[in-house]
Design goal:
The structure is a single chain. The protein is α+β, with helices and mostly antiparallel strands. The protein has five helices and nine strands, in the order E-E-E-H-H-H-E-E-E-H-E-H-E-E. It has helices at about 30-40, 55-60, 65-70, 110-125, 140-150, and strands spanning about 1-5, 10-15, 20-25, 75, 85-90, 95-100, 130-135, 150-160, 165-170. The mean pLDDT is about 90.
Length: about 170
């Protein structure tokens, strides 16, 4: 179930734990981007940890650039206005590539599926029937399951430096 309130899309979902949560999407602010830079994942997921905000600025990360952040990123907040996830959506000539991040302590609770569904809906409205793709590490079974539950299917496996990735497409 979703509502549009003052131009903000609000989704009400039942998570698999039986909790009810509201998720709203808004433009990524600098403060929210800085918060994402502080998120720390554990174990093999630590490859998703970002460097410090200063290091990201020095290395020209899109998240630190006001114009690129506005164009590419969306923040997802719960009813307490707590940042629980984000997406990056790149519009390439032949396809759309979606990246998603969920706050470390919110992983594995079904939130990623809901954020991804919201992002896909936005892509369909904004870009029509253009293919929607994403990449995921082959060892990240939790994310792969999330993406499959949303409707993505594997199309190829490839190496990116030392990391084996699966490219998936929304069907």
């Amino acid at each position: 179930m979703f509502y549009i309130l003052d131009g903000v899309i609000i989704i009400i979902i039942h998570l698999w734990l039986g909790d009810i949560i509201m998720i709203k999407r808004e433009q990524m602010s600098k403060d929210l981007a800085k918060e994402i830079a502080s998120w720390k994942y554990e174990d093999e997921c630590s490859i998703y940890n970002l460097p410090s905000w200063e290091q990201m600025k020095n290395n020209n990360y899109a998240l630190c650039d006001d114009a690129l952040r506005k164009e590419l990123y969306n923040a997802y907040l719960n009813s307490n206005d707590e940042l629980i996830g984000f997406t990056r959506i790149d519009n390439f000539p032949t396809d759309i590539v979606v990246g998603i991040g969920v706050k470390p302590n919110k992983c594995g609770k079904g939130i990623g599926e809901e954020i991804l569904n919201m992002a896909i809906d936005m892509c369909k409205i904004k870009y029509g029937d253009k293919p929607i793709k994403l990449q995921v590490a082959t060892w990240n079974q939790r994310a792969i399951n999330c993406y499959r539950n949303v409707g993505f299917t594997s199309i190829k496996t490839y190496m990116d430096e030392d990391l084996e990735l699966i490219e998936m497409e929304y069907i």
